[in-house]
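4.2 Preliminary Data

To establish feasibility before requesting continued support, the project team ran the inverse folding procedure on a target of 63 residues. The structure was first converted into the token representation described in Section 3, and no sequence information of any kind was made available to the design step. The complete token record follows.
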């Protein structure tokens, strides 16, 4: 599966389920971001970012 297809699979999942899925796929670094949370902009290869609202993933991207 390509990266974009993988990322779409996280959308709509509860954060805990998304983190388990990421771990099952070998992701070692998962960052969960809530609305309005400040983030650093450095790129980290292999990191999966999950933007969540009310405990549900709304957006997902690499770096």
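Position-by-position output of the design step:
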């Amino acid at each position: 599966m390509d990266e974009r297809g993988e990322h779409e699979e996280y959308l709509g999942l509860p954060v805990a389920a998304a983190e388990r899925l990421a771990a099952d796929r070998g992701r070692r670094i998962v960052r969960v971001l809530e609305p309005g949370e400040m983030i650093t902009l450095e790129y980290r290869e292999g990191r999966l970012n999950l933007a969540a609202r009310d405990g549900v993933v709304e957006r997902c991207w690499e770096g």
